[in-house]
Queue: 4 jobs
Job 1
Amino acid sequence: MEVLKQRILEEGIVVSDQVLKLDALLNHQVDPQLTMDMGREFAGRFADSGITRIVTVESSGIAVAFATAFVMNVPLVFARRKKTLLADPDALCERVPSFTKGIVTDIMLSRQFIGPEDKILFIDDIIANGDAARGLIKIIQRSGAELVGLGVVVEKSFQAGARTIREQGIRLESLVRIKSLSEGKIVFED
Ligand code: 5GP
């Protein structure tokens, strides 16, 4: 997605050779027009797949997941991050390490909002090592729903997450792929 590459070059801040700050676009501020363009792009790539629900993890995935859900005219469900897990017989839970915060969080999704009749498109902001995505994939699989695919805004292809998920046979579509952040420079895959 060329427009997104351009915005990342203009507004992204390379924090280290592993981390790109995208607060201006994804993780703090949201540009509604650009976010709707992302939603249309994902909706187009997964058109005719019979998607019944969009799933994401709070919080940075919500805006683009909403845009995708709006275009596809299906509900959006976001997995919640819980500090303490109250006993909830309806909750599907996974413990995932957080790439940026260096802590472990529990994510949960209620069985009320996902089930065996669903065909799920999972939308997320950035994929690095893939821990967050793997956690939600496990939850989706345990719910009995069919995971049609994963749409991520930014794939850092120099980290293993996206590759290992594709190796599991899961369709993963990214809007931009970054192959390096070395020496303060953002380099995209072709
Ligand atoms: P993973 O579980 O794939 O290692 O990391 C995924 C999550 O960590 C993303 O949803 C994102 O919020 C955060 N993250 C990973 N890498 C980066 C990065 O380079 N920049 C920012 N801003 N967040 C990141």
Note: The two ends are 11 Å apart (CA to CA).
Job 2
Amino acid sequence: MKVGETIYLDHQATTPVDPRVFVKMAAAFTNAFGNPHASEHVIGWRATEAIAAAARQVASLVGADPDEVIFTSGATEANNLALLGLADYAERSGRHRVLLSAIEHKSVLAAGRVLAQRHGLEVAVIEVDRQGRVDEAALAAQLDGDVLLVSIMAVNNEIGTIQAVDRIGALARAAGALVHCDAAQAPCAIDIGDLAHHADLISLSSHKIYGPGGIGALVVHRGVQPCLTPLIHGGGQQNGLRSGTLPLPLCVGFGAAAELLSGTSAREERDRVRACRDLFVETLLAEGCEAVSNGPDTRLRHPGNANLLLRSVTAADLLAALQPTLAASSGSACASGIPEPSHVLRAIGLTSEEADCSIRFSLGRSTTADEAVQAARIVSAAVERLSSGPLRATL
Ligand code: PMP
């Protein structure tokens, strides 16, 4: 996809709203403006039905039931609710340890720090290998009757690693722990139609799946809902777990986006995106660019993700030189502006200097094969220009 003159290769930061989603949202903005919690008139009932339909679509994406969907403002809030919402239950259950992988999103890691500092829980980090896969033996060694929660993301946002959530979930449950899975990046990468069978709490984000920003969900197994304490108090909407009037057009858009990623057409889309991603990397190498892939091999990687170490230039210099022709990102977009090397790249064994010279290109639904080739040529030319100039990195 080109936005004006810019090739957009930053789909893991955010995705453009799919036009089919937008049409449904436009109808919701104009025709179904009611408050879904207004139970005394027909306009409210229609809004309630639209929300119920969206909950069904989101639930079906992960194999859950509609009453298990709690809409939030996004995956950051969902992750906060999953972790901090269990703090009181830690007291009641007598379990005081939480295990997180080293490459979780910052919203999980930061919530973990709050659990440790304000609630006195013991939070341990599980290391990953060079591919970003959770060390299952290390996890098993940490699991005991004191573990309340294991939080493992399904697909990593920087290096695209696909985790074995089924096996990890089974290990955690065998020890009596709850399982949280941050699946914000998963729907575009893999089929997660049975994820609710392996995880008790699942975080989703609409703007990562071609839906609108400002909406996401925490899908919570019915039996686990009583364990959760809300973070937002008020009118008691959504079983009292997340008060606030639901933003109907956003819920409708999120539901429509989720539906587009359920089923066979999603598989075809992943294959097409994978082919474009492979073409991008092959063209880059064919152009003579010295790029090394960070993270997993293709089998275990998000089909749209290429995280490349380009030794001769820093990511910051290259990204600046690529403006306005190409949009990509260094590390995760959420961390941009914070001048520290990516914790994910460090966790898989890169040095800080190598992390600084790594770029994430993320292709998506709207990327064409032509753009993949064009982008590779643009990157290669920019790397060559920078490597021979004063901005050369000293790796
Ligand atoms: N988890 C992961 C894996 C993500 O990639 C992101 C977005 N970068 C989030 C959580 C946060 O999602 P949101 O922007 O919806 O708050």
Note: Residues 304 and 363 are 5 Å apart (CA to CA).
Job 3
Amino acid sequence: MSLEIYLDGEFVPEEQARVSVYDHGFLYGDGVFEGIRAYNGRVFRLAQHIDRLYESAKSILLEIPVLKEDLAEAVVEACRRNAIRDGYIRVVVSRGKGDLGLDPRKCPRATVVVIADVISIFPEEVYREGMSVITVATRRSRTDALNPQIKTLNYLNSIMAKLEANLAGKPEVLLLNAEGLVVEGTGDNVFIVRRGHLVTPPTWLGILEGITRRTVLELAKARGIAAVEAPFTAHDVYNAQECFLTGTAAEVVPVVEVDGRRVGEGQPGTVTRQLIDAYRELVNHEGTEIFVEEALQAGLKGGS
Ligand code: PXG
């Protein structure tokens, strides 16, 4: 059965969910997006994702022609209509249809799309055994060129790095910024455990401020694990006790080898394992209910 896609205020079958070839999202990568997960009938951290989307849009002077509350509801409705209890939601807002010039003033109205679908994730083995990554030649965009804090539709910087990963036969890579500091993965943030501290690069270094990153920092704090936002180099990663990546798609994934150097004991460390478990536990309980009616009915039947 075809999916029902939210497109500019209404739900249409996937076959009819068509965007113009003059859309500047297609012509120029001019737009913003979010990737959101649903677990166990709940949308995880929906408000934070919606806020980040509007912040990205503000930064590129893109007006989203939908109220925040309505777009949040469209996300939940997209899950409901497609019977998604566990899945992945993509929200895309592009500059909209214009002419062949790049001037955004020629695009009178942004295009808004919400797709709720299932996701293919790393095999469980990766979480148990960890993965091997490399640093790549492609540097993360400078904050004064294309600020990585903005989740734009222009992902070529990450795709160039992903191509290097593919050529090297690696599932993911670490990107450095122009100064040679480790900043993030292609679609994930990076953490190390070094000298007893959990360390992750600060936002100002040029990263996307991940919602999973934020969640992991909260989980660490609640468990008395000291965490700091500080810059570090590849040398620090090679000599760390532990390393892991975080992202909506990847969740918390251990890294056990970087550029041929074994990290720590070469297996997921205790802090990493603790945070994987804590994250899984949290996403299964917290979030915006998708099937409220059904939940109410079940509650009534259950007598509560
Ligand atoms: N950094 C970058 C550059 C990202 O694109 C993250 C960090 C993690 O952020 P969240 O909020 O998800 O914790 C992302 C997230 C994929 C995929 O297929 C991942 C992302 C975007 C698109 C696809 O893995 N990004």
Note: The chain has a mean pLDDT of 96.
Job 4
Amino acid sequence: MSAQKTILTGDRPTGPLHLGHYVGSLLNRVELQKSYKQFVMLADIQALTDNVDNPQKIRTNVCEVVLDYLAVGIDPSKTTIFLQSMIPEIAELATLYLNFVTLSRLKRNPTVKTEIQQKGYGDAVTVGFLTYPVHQAADITIFKGNLVPVGEDQLPMIEQTNEIVRAFNRTYNTNVLVEAEALIPRFARLPGIDGKAKMGKSLGNAIFLSDSADVLSKKVMQMYTDPDHVRVEDPGKIEGNTVFTYLDVFGTDIITIAQMKEQYQKGGLGDVKVKRYLAEVLNTLLEPLRQRRAEYAKDPQAVMQIIRTGTEHAREVAAHTMMEVRQAIGLNYW
Ligand code: TRP
């Protein structure tokens, strides 16, 4: 057994990745791949749970998301990038887990509960959707993931995973399954360009990593600032002012930023000037990513090959755990 910890994390491939992903998860993954065995899953089966009639969207975005991964520096020689749907062992394990989870427990999962409300499913929620946390438990444990870097909203999933792990190990008197620990990113959530608490692809308030410099600048120009800062001479607020929040996160020249803040608060600094500066900061940051992305995008087959190689490796690991699980239960007939 290796002492090196295993990281398992994933994304639903339902759209290109944005700056919120960049600070919330992608940068972390680039760091973590240096010292851990890292698996990053394209959760296409999970994405289907609320996109059942739109598989094409998922299919298209698999490649987009991987291009984003490669653009930010997730290195396929260090990180195993793989497709959930191509590893049937995950579904097999999830089936076994279903016996350890009650309906009322699933309905109490806070994240799922909120999602059911938001999507207006009510009692018409599908079993597929309701049980996605159980599948997620299989995603994590089949790779013996010790550390799971996720946002706060995913904490209930880790909790539910560990309940399953403990119940399974106790019932079959084994220790094949390992408990997982959530790794919450240092950065708080990045607000959307509209100032809302969260940037989201479906909220229409995101700056995508794949946005051109032009599109990015336009989005920055629309950003929410201080609604009471009407004239340049007026003193402005920097708290809750998205442009300054972004400068705090992405800016590197802290002296310039401190001066701008001071002038903005005193009065005499216009929004447009700050926005131009922010657009420049972001474009400087994203330019090398765009170039790398464009390079990889020229050869979609090579990208698919990266996913395929990763998936083949991931499947070997998953099959091995599944064999141990079968042994533990006594489902190893020959
Ligand atoms: N539920 C996660 C999300 O919506 C995606 C995901 C699926 C995941 N399986 C996972 C994350 C396993 C971490 C570990 O973002």
Note: The pocket of tryptophan is lined by residues 8-12, 41, 43, 46, 136, 139-140, 148, 150, 154 (CB under 6 Å).
